[in-house]
Design a protein that fits this description.
The protein has one domain. The protein has six helices and seven strands. The chain has helices at residues 17-29, 33-60, 70-77, 91-98, 122-134, 162-193, and strands at residues 2-3, 9-12, 64-65, 99-104, 112-117, 136-141, 144-153. It has a four-stranded antiparallel sheet with strand order 1-2-5-4. It has a three-stranded antiparallel sheet with strand order 3-7-6. Helix 1 (17-29) packs across helix 2 (33-60), helix 1 (17-29) packs across helix 6 (162-193) and helix 2 runs antiparallel to helix 6.
Length: 194
């Protein structure tokens, strides 16, 4: 398991990438390969779910310290001119929704499981990576690029990476077990056909 270039990527490599690639080749050759691949993906994602939940919980629990003018900004930011409340997604919710698990069967070092911050909004990805690296984000005051401010999250540094240490071994074991189960299933099916 290693950090990605931007610090927002968990790469979980099974102890034998060759096994995952072998499964991919065998599934490709079979007529029911798509169904079995779907089954394997579900098992792998189930193995990574505790880590994904922990990362999402950290995103939900980010605590930002505001400036002295922060309270006024919080009171007025969500209100339209007519006085009605405006509800947009906040950064915490956007970070939480951006956490995705991907399974890859590519040849070479690309095979494996990745848990990453992959929001459709590039700004959310940038802010999440900045929080993870430095524990703070730099942003303009309501879009005014003449005035930039730092907003510090007291628990922001390593918000993405801290759960990895807790769940790493369980996730790697779970992914390896899912791949091994699929290999055993494929071997049994080949034995039945012969």
């Amino acid at each position: 398991m290693s950090k990605g270039r931007s610090g927002d990527l968990v790469y979980i490599e099974p102890s034998s990438v060759k096994a995952l690639q072998r499964v991919a080749r065998e599934l490709k050759e079979r007529g029911d390969g798509k169904a079995l691949k779907k089954e394997l993906n579900a098992e792998i994602k189930e193995a990574t779910r505790p880590l994904e939940r922990a990362i999402k919980a950290n995103a939900r629990g980010l605590e930002f310290r505001g400036t002295s003018r922060g309270e006024r900004a919080r009171r007025t930011a969500g209100v339209t001119k007519t006085g009605r409340a405006r509800r947009g997604k906040g950064l915490r919710e956007s970070l939480e929704q951006g956490i995705k698990t991907e399974v890859s069967y590519r040849a070479g070092a690309g095979a494996g499981v990745r848990i990453r911050l992959k929001s459709s909004d590039a700004e959310v990805n940038r802010l999440g990576s900045a929080l993870n690296r430095r524990g703070k984000i730099r942003h303009p005051l309501f879009g005014n690029t003449d005035h930039w401010f730092d907003t510090v999250a007291s628990n922001g540094k390593d918000w993405f990476w801290s759960p990895v240490a807790q769940h790493r071994d369980d996730v790697v074991r779970g992914v390896k077990a899912a791949v091994d189960r699929m290999l055993d299933k494929l071997a049994r099916d080949v034995g039945k056909a012969a």
